[in-house]
Amino acid sequence: MRGGAGRGQDSGGGSGGPGRTVVKAAQRPQVRLPPLEPFRGGALEPDGDYDGLDFREFDFAGHDGGGARFMDCALTGCAVDETRLRHARVLDSVLTGLRGVGTDLADATLRDVELVDARLGGVQAHGAVLERVVVRGGKIDYLNLRTARLRDVVFEGCVLVEPDFGGAKLERVQFVDCVLKGADLTAATLKDVDLRDAAELVVARGVDRLAGAVISSVQLMDLAPVLAAEMGIRVEG
């Protein structure tokens, strides 16, 4: 069950302090789960339909849930190593403490989802659609979001190591107290992307694609060498 803040609000106090650029805020999910039935176990099934279920401490390593639909579900402490969830739909759900390497979420849809304290590596989410999603806490290494579409997404208090946004479209995306290391923005399109409150921002490639994003003056200084190299500017002395 979901609700949400009204559209068109300003993020991070954008309408407040002097000199603060106004940026359209991401609309956060407000997930209110109904009473859940415990998942009885067994393998995930391709094109399975999971509605109102509580998945707790299950090992889904190597399972194939491609095309499955998860609606009003809670997944807590589950292992998702090499779990195939290609084309899956995760709707109005809370995912807490997921752990695993090589999870396949290519072309999946996540809408009105909270992903909390995940420990993931090598997630394949290229071509995925994320709408009204909060990623809070945890660490995700080598997240592949190439050609994905992100709208109303907040990365909050998490660590992203070498995330790949190549060719992705980001609209109303916020990075709050988030560490962003070695990001690849090659051919990405950004609109109302707020990076000012990121705890650390390192762009490895595609710094020229930051048009449509807002950064702080301190971040600009940190990015100056990369920007100069991108523009072919020699800095001496």
From TrEMBL:
**Which SUPFAM superfamilies does the record associate with it?**
Pentapeptide repeat-like
* Disordered: region residues: 1-43
- Answer yes or no on keyword Repeat: yes
Query: Sorted alphabetically, which keywords does the UniProt record give?
Result: Repeat
Bias kind Gly residues: ranges:
1-19
Q: Which Pfam families match?
A: Pentapeptide, Pentapeptide_4
Q: Which domain of life is it from?
A: Bacteria
InterPro entries for this protein = 5peptide_repeat (IPR001646)
PANTHER family assigned: THYLAKOID LUMENAL 17.4 KDA PROTEIN, CHLOROPLASTIC
Protein name in the entry: Pentapeptide repeat-containing protein
| Species of provenance | Streptomyces cylindrosporus
**Upper lineage ranks?**
Bacteria, Bacillati, Actinomycetota, Actinomycetes, Kitasatosporales
